[in-house]
Amino acid sequence: MSTRKSILFVSALMLISVSTFAQTTLGLKQGAAMTTLSAKGDLYNDNNVSYSYNAGLFATIPVNNFLAIQPEINYVRKGRCNETAELNTTTKTDFLLHYMQVPVLLQYRNNQLLNKSASVFFINAGPYAGFVLNTQTRVSESSEGGMLVPVEDDKNTDWGAVFGIGVQTPIRGKEVRFDLRYDMGLSEIANQPTDYRTKALSLTVGIIL
Predict the structure, then answer these.
(1) What SS3 class is residue 12?
(2) Residue 97: which of 54, 61, 126 has the closest Cα?
């Protein structure tokens, strides 16, 4: 079994295993993300943003009425979009990294976890490990589409931290979750001209199964 398949298998097994605990809930989510790469420690440089889609599976494991542990398995594409202008032609170069990201979050809520009839606000924080599934570059001129070219990446893991807020509310008999979060990578990204780390701001909508 390949390394990537092994990671997927172990991660799926982890979520299936934790779902056997009493009162644990599972959910699916999807949404959009704004990502970029910036120098180490630079939290404010949000230039060269790349837009992407993300999706995932999560489990919420209650610790008490207000705290829970939330492991997740997410797909997210991160990257940086650079533009150069020469001879009246704008050229865009995208560097794209496709990750399977596995965060383990501590979640605090302002209402009891088992209260299904009211909206609750929550705060998430915790570490993540991101495993590179694919790395690509894309060069395009003006509005014309560019060709994606695979890039060899000798660093296949991105370690980082997640911080977020959200709300879970009942809608038509279903528990729906809106989650806004910021991901900050701590590992240097290969094939870059400087010491870049990943950054991502994402908004997802999830549903409790």
Answers:
(1) helix
(2) 54
Span 177-182, mean pLDDT? 96
The topology under which CATH files domain 3-208 is: Porin (2.40.160)
**Side chain identity at residue 178, one-letter code:** F
Angstrom CA distances, 33 to 4, 26, 59, 129, 203, stand at 23, 22, 21, 18, 6
Q: What are the structural domain ranges in the chain?
A: 3-208
Closest CA to 26 of 63, 72, 68, 66: 72
Question: Cα(203)–Cα(161) distance, rounded to whole angstroms?
Answer: 16
In the chain, the DSSP E strands lie at 25-39, 50-62, 67-86, 89-109, 120-141, 147-150, 157-171, 174-185, 196-208
pTM: 0.78
For the record, the structure tokens of 119 come out as 């909206």
57 pLDDT higher than 90: yes
Q: What is the pLDDT of residues 163-174, one digit of tens each?
A: 999 999 999 889
Distances (CA, A) of 5 to 9, 11, 25, 55: 6, 10, 25, 18
